[in-house]
């Protein structure tokens, strides 16, 4: 298939309403901030991987797209010259900024910005960064957002995402709300697939590594209802909130909702200066 076909399929999956994304990540900012310390081993593995590519050094500049509460940028700061981290969520940026101050780090700048609508010329970011980094972020959700990564980089781009993910609660809710709609069910697992093939058709041959991951989730019932409602809100399906509320109430235990997630993640890296 040519690039236009992959572009079309990716566009069909794109979440259009950025205000929903902002609400969703604002809602989850505290949760993501708390797990930063729990993912240090994963962070170290990624730092080692980037070091093996001779990317991280004291002259390196990084753009961290969808930086969240600073999970990766805080780690990278020890190895590079400077970093700019952006996120659509102002609450994520608040946590990232506070974490930076708490760790006495002075080579990161955090900004509230949506990558999908950001214009590189407004920030003088064209060909500015040695590494444009986008880990597990829905901000890279179309050919345009992918090409913008390339335009901002002068050396490397890194993107990671799910190629497989199984969390029982979300699967059950998808089926109750949508039926067995495979297009929706798989759309977030296809970002790497679409990006890799678009790059391939451009003559860019990205390198991919796969990692198996597992984690547990626990929310208060009210928080779980809000999180899952926002995940399905842009589909504008009548009574979806009622369906979600009813199901989560039925599986809650002492006001808590618990789930276990098993997934496979792809790390994809490519060089643009050769």
Automatic annotation (TrEMBL):
State the signal peptide span.
none
Highest taxon of the lineage: Bacteria
Q: Does the keyword Transferase apply?
A: yes
- Per the UniProt record, one Pfam family is Methyltransf_31
Q: Record's CDD domains?
A: AdoMet_MTases (cd02440)
Q: What residues does the Methyltransferase domain cover?
A: 57-192
Q: Which UniProt keywords apply?
A: Methyltransferase, Transferase
Which InterPro entries does the entry mention?
Diverse_substrate_MTase, Methyltranfer_dom, SAM-dependent_MTases_sf
Gene Ontology process terms (BP): methylation
What's an example of a GO molecular-function annotation for this chain?
methyltransferase activity
- Protein's UniProt name: Cyclopropane-fatty-acyl-phospholipid synthase
Q: Which organism is this protein's natural source?
A: Clostridium drakei
Q: What is the lineage of its organism?
A: Bacteria, Bacillati, Bacillota, Clostridia, Eubacteriales
